[in-house]
Design brief:
The chain is mostly beta strands. The protein contains no helices and four strands. It has strands at residues 28-33, 39-44, 49-55, 60-65. A hairpin with a 4-residue loop joins strand 2 and strand 3. The termini are far apart.
Amino acid sequence: MAKQTINYQKESYYIHEFNVPNLEDKGLKGIVTDSDGNPWVYHQTNKTSTLIRFNPLNNSFNSYSIEGKTHS
């Protein structure tokens, strides 16, 4: 019986990883897609809350700060 192996490639045709800019602190709280299939990330620290939208057409990120006091 032949030994089966699994190969992992960081970049593939199915999953492509992107570094989200300006996220130096840990605080990723969730990922969701909108009705157009655009991924959104919610990032929260003890000082800030931010929504980040990824645009797959040009591989860019837009950040939207959430005003107000952050609650954990």
